[in-house]
Amino acid sequence: MIKRGILTIAAVTAAIAVGAAQAADPTFFRIGTGGAGGTYFPIGGTIANGISAPPGSRACDKGGQCGVPGLIAIAQSTTASVFNNAAVQNGELEAGLAAADVTRSMFLGEGKFEGKAHPKLRIVANLYPEDLHLVLPKGSSINNLGDLADKRVGIAQAGSGTQVAVLQMLEAWGVTRDNMSEAELNNSQSAERLADGQLDAYFYAAGWPVAAMVQLASTKGMALHSFTEEDLQKINGIIPAYIPSKIPSGVYEGVDNDVLTPAVSALMVVSSDLSEELVYGITKAMWNENTRKLLDNGHAKGKQITSETALDGVAALGVPLHPGAEKFYKEAGLLK
Asked: In angstroms, rounded to a whole number, what is the distance separating the alpha carbons of residues 128 and 134?
C-alpha cells in the first residue's frame, strides 16, 4: 500500500475548483517522494505544483498555474527510491524521485535486484546531487566506516536507496548487520534517536540542507563525518554512481568545516506506460518560467534543478529517457 502523504498546494487548489471543473475530467498524477524530514518530499511538492493546472483554474497568463491543462499532481510521502521505482513499475505511482544507482540496478535487475528487472522505468530528468550525511553526536568523530562496528547505526529506511548503498559501503570496511546494531529509520526518526542518545551514528542521503538535521544541529547539536579522498575513491569503485562531493561549511549550525562526502544524483522517473504526449507536457512544464520561480523560492536544493543539468549523467546510466521527455529536450536544443 502507498502511504497517504500530505497533498500539495496543487491538490488543494483542485479541490477548491471542483465546482468550476465539471466540464473537464481531471488527470491525477502521483509522485512518490520520501519522508517529510528529507529533501525528496519538498522538492516533489514543488514539482507537483509546477506541473499542475487543475480543471477550472485560472489561465497561466492571468496569474494561474502554468502546468499541464487538467493535470492534478500530488506528492506522496513514501520510503523513497526502492519503493518509488517499484511502485512506478507496478503502476501504483505515475512518477517517483529516486537515486541514480538504485534506478540503474532496478532497471537492469543487477546486484540486490538480480533477476528482478524493472523494465518500465524511464527517466524524465536528473535533478540534483544527494550528499550522503553520516551524522554523529556533537563532539564525536570516527576515523573511517570500520569504526562503526559494534555501534548503534541508523542505516535509513528499508525501501530506500540510501540503505542499499550504505550497506555496500559498510561491508567494504568489514561492518555488516552481524556486527553492528542497525536501525531502519527515516531521517526524522534517526535524528530523534541520535539526540536521545539511542544511536551512535546514522546515514541519510539527501540534498542539503536537510530539515531534520537543521533542527538537530540547532538544538542538541551534531557532527558530520568528513571522508578522506582515499575513502571517497574506494566508495566510487564500489558504487560508481556515488562520486566525491562536498557539504559546505555553515550549512548546519556548528558544522564549521567543509565536509567531504560521496553523493549520488536524484532522478525523476516515470513509467513507459505513460503517453508521450503527457510526459512531453510534464517535462515542458517542469522547465517553464513559472516552475523556475517555484524551484528558486522553495527548498534550497531547488536552485540546482535546471534544464541545463537535466541530462547530466543520464546517458551513462543505461536507463532510457521517456520518449516524451526526449522529444522536449530535442526541441529545446538540449539533446541531439
From this structure: 19
Q: Cell 562526502 maps to which residue?
A: 261
Instruction: Determine the residue type at 103.
Output: T
Give the start-to-end residue ranges of the domains of the chain: 9-128+266-331, 131-264
Superfamily of domain 131-264 in the CATH hierarchy: Periplasmic binding protein-like II (3.40.190.10)
Q: Would 9-128+266-331 and 131-264 be classified into the same CATH topology?
A: yes
Specify whether the CB–CB gap between 104 and 165 falls below 8 A.
no
Instruction: Spell 125-159 as b/e; 16+ CB within 10 A means b.
Output: bbbbbbbbbbbbbeeeeeeebeebeeebbbbbbeb
CATH of domain 9-128+266-331: 3.40.190.10
Vertex 89: Cα angle to 80 and 24 (nearest 5): 95
Letter for the amino acid at 170?
L
Residue 171: CB atoms within 10 A of its CB come to 13
| Tens digits of residue pLDDT in 268-296 | 999 999 999 999 999 999 999 999 999 99
Instruction: Give burial (CB, 10 Å; 0-12/13-18/19+) of 249.
Output: exposed
CA-atom Rg of the chain in angstroms:
20
What are 226-232's contacts with CB under 8 Å, separation 24+?
A: 226/257, 226/258, 226/259, 226/260, 226/261, 227/134, 227/144, 227/260, 227/261, 227/262, 228/144, 228/260, 229/260, 231/144, 231/145, 232/260, 232/261, 232/262
Read off the pTM: 0.83
